[in-house]
Structure to design on (513 residues):
């Protein structure tokens, strides 16, 4: 597959503080890529650079082969963006909010109802944006990002502050866009979200990418114990080495009907991040 | 042009639901109809309230609305979304400016009708009002661009608006105030409006209004270069 988003040694500093320090990324077309890091790690800064809202101090970023500092209006239409600090016209209804952008993009009126339907807001079309719940507000922002049917979606913490049900609705929308072949670049500090949605992730700390790969790969890489944890029906737990030597013992436990659950001991992303940086991911 | 229209129409929809802005456009036109019909004093100049309120309207409505609209969009981060949708800063400012101008033009029609202007006097009245609206819009845009949020914008707008809209009225009662107010465009607009039909347009008024315009453009350029629309 072709590379949709590529960065080479991106650096950005605000004053004396290096926010991004040599970021290299290759994101393939059609994948969901997650950039994970605690607040202030530089995730939003990178999205701003990739979408042409901010210029980097050094390095180059490309979207579909075009330097992000030279993106034209037509190229801008190929990506949709939602950021936490992107506002809505609160007095205007959901449909009126989208109508503004339909006019700007020269889209027909049915693009408004299509976008609202896609995020499940058809019934709220006439509700003022200021009266929507946080989850619905998030979905309306997604609808706005979907209006031009963009090839790439940049989603900056799309479920930040949402309850699990609202977050799950947004996850379904993101996955349905991936199924349509869209590329999604999302930032999050929620490891479960990354594990659920992302094909590849990068862990960002102090402006540097400290780990890169699929969530499962990364977790396996940091499984220092390499053990199997078996919970028995009698309530006891036992550990076996995660290798060929354990095969016979494990088979016997299963055959005797003693093993209730079997788990590997690889850590979750939160633990990996903690090991790599000494910081909590959700900080 | 498409983006200017989109911004213009956005503002039409938004203002219909925004009483704070709407009242700025309606207050003086409604007030002038009421006062011209309700207050009759023997020695009062003809159409006194129409002339007085027209100047106050020009000094207040465009200035307040421009600063309020721009600062609200900055505070609520809707302006950022427009910019990300490829609306250029100039297109946004023209869209908002055109909207405020059209709304103030409706007010101007009311003042012209109540003031009984016809023919050449009507054309001059409209020209003077238009110049005032554009100058106040520029001043409001300077404040809007310079302010980070609505609270900052309001704290700057109120004293500036008081100066431009109330000085012409206060100068009727005090010569010192009148002398000081001479340098403001609103005082010159007041003198031009009061002289329609009786005195010729003074070169001094035109020069002072032009200087005010140049100053407003310079201030806007400085504010925009320093703060942009973000």
């Amino acid at each position: 597959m072709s590379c949709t988003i590529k960065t080479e040694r991106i650096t950005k500093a605000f004053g004396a503080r290096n926010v991004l320090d040599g970021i290299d990324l290759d994101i393939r077309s059609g994948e969901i890529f997650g950039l994970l890091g605690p607040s202030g790690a530089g995730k939003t800064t990178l999205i701003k650079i990739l979408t042409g809202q901010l210029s980097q101090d050094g390095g180059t970023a490309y979207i579909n082969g075009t330097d992000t500092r030279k993106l034209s209006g037509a190229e801008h239409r190929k990506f949709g963006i939602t950021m936490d600090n992107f506002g809505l016209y609160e007095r205007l209804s959901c449909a009126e909010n989208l109508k503004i952008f339909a006019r700007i993009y020269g889209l027909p009126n049915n693009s408004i109802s299509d976008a609202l339907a896609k995020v499940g807001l058809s019934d709220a079309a006439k509700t003022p944006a200021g009266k929507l719940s946080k989850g619905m507000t998030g979905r309306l922002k997604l609808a706005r990002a979907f209006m031009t049917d963009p090839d790439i979606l940049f989603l900056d913490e799309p479920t930040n502050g949402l309850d699990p049900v609202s977050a799950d609705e947004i996850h379904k929308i993101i996955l349905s866009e991936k199924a349509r072949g869209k590329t999604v670049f999302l930032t999050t500090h929620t490891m479960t979200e990354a594990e659920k949605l992302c094909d590849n992730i990068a862990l960002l700390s102090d402006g540097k990418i400290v780990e890169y790969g699929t969530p499962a790969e990364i977790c396996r890489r940091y499984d220092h114990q390499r053990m199997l944890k078996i919970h028995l029906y009698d309530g006891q737990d036992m550990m076996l080495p995660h290798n060929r030597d354990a095969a016979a013992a494990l088979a016997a436990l299963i055959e005797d009907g003693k093993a209730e659950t079997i788990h590997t001991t690889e850590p979750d992303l939160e633990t990996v991040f903690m090991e790599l940086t000494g910081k909590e991911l959700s900080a | 042009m498409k983006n200017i229209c989109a911004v213009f129409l956005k503002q039409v929809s938004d203002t219909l639901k925004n009483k704070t802005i709407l009242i700025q456009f309606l207050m003086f036109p409604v007030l002038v109809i009421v006062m011209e019909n309700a207050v009759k004093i023997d020695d009062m100049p003809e159409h006194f309230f129409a002339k007085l309120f027209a100047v106050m309207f020009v000094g207040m409505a465009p200035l307040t609305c421009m600063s309020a609209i721009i600062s609200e969009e900055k505070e609520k981060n809707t302006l950022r979304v427009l910019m990300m949708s490829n609306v250029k800063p100039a297109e946004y400012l023209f869209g908002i400016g055109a909207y405020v101008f059209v709304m103030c033009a409706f007010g101007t029609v009311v003042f012209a009708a109540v003031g009984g202007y016809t023919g050449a006097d009507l054309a001059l009245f409209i020209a003077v009002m238009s110049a005032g609206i554009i100058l106040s819009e520029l001043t409001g845009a300077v404040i809007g661009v310079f302010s980070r949020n609505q609270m900052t914008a309001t704290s700057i707008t109120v004293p500036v608006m008081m100066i431009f809209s109330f000085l012409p009225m206060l100068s009727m009662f005090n010569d010192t105030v009148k002398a000081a107010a001479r340098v403001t465009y609103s005082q010159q607009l007041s003198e031009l409006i009061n002289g329609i039909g009786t005195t010729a347009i003074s070169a001094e008024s035109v020069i002072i209004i032009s200087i005010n315009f140049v100053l407003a453009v310079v201030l806007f350029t400085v504010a925009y270069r320093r703060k942009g629309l973000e």
